[in-house]
Amino acid sequence: MKVAPIIRAFAAHNPPIRTLLVHTGQHYDPAMKDRLFADLALPEPDVNLAVGSGSHAVQTAEVMKRFEPVIDEHGARAVLVVGDVNSTLACALVASKRHIPVVHVESGLRSNDRRMPEEINRILTDQISDVLYTTERSAHDNLAREGIAPERAVFVGNVMIDSLRASLPKAVPAASLLAAAGLDPQRIEGGYGVVTLHRPSNVDHAEVLGPIIEALHVVSARLPLVIALHPRTRANLERFGMLGRIDTPGFLLLPPQGYLEMLGLLSGARMVLTDSGGIQEETTALGVPCITIRENTERPITVEQGTNTLVGVDPAAIIAAADSVLATGGKAGRVPEYWDGRCAERIAVHLHDWLLAHDSKA
Fold first, then answer.
1. Element (H, E) at 79
2. Mind listing the pLDDT tens digit for each residue in 232-249?
3. pLDDT of 160-219, one tens digit each?
4. Which of 181, 284, 289, 336 is the most exposed place for a label (fewest CB within 10 A)?
5. Percent helix, strand, coil in the chain (nearest 5)?
6. Among this protein's residues, is 217 annotated catalytic?
7. Catalytic residue among 13, 27, 140, 198
């Protein structure tokens, strides 16, 4: 979702910015990968590292081992990485140690919770990046506190919203999804909520997941809840003997969905209950109330300006927040600055000029 608009903006820039698209294969399900690339009109990668799963250490090391020969073969004026996954840090490390400029898209976001692997990836990638593109102005305060020179950071907006705006006309309506899954679309005619849960801190421990599911069960009695069930969450529900708790009339279970399908679900929902970072941003852009089942967020602008409410994992807080949305319509919020669908264009313009300046100094 972050790379597709950047690739298009680089191709459309005058002159075009030449790219080599490397897919690490960290998210490795072939069917989901092909579906996502098609949904986003993203060209097939020039290189697929096919890393697959593994522990954080194994995955990071494997990306580094497989990415370095790509640099040896093709060279690079810069290596652009996005987000906060293991691949982000791994490719940035390889480039930095080869003295190739690192460009980080979505810099400066902080949850201030170093128990999250993504937080470590964010902090370390920002430290070794030469150009840091930020989604919100508060990110610059985070970077300044960590000693990063202000001239390295550039506020460009949120590239995720570029993809959302471009894809919204193609989004698949929720009723169509349910019908295709053999579920009765009439069950959501009076409105529905969407649930996504996948974060290990929420789904890997029965004592945490159980109360969350019970809270959702209460909410489902007031509003039907559509759950696109993440494989990790399904496996843990089965392992803990809890899968039957969501096999009730208030829940509509779907398998993992593609981007256009999720966009259709989100855009038509009365509320979304999630632990996803990206969905916090998407719901704010769509104006849909979001209840985030986490103790912290690296996207505070979605709470301060958007439609997001952070409730933690306390069942009473989850239920109260859902009841508030049903009673009042939820937070109206507003779309933050530069979440306008033109972030990738701003990156292309700035990076082209930065590369020329950098090359002239080399």
1. strand 79-82
2. 899 999 999 999 999 999
3. 999 999 999 999 999 999 999 999 999 999 999 999 999 889 999 999 999 999 999 999
4. 181
5. 50, 10, 35
6. no
7. 198
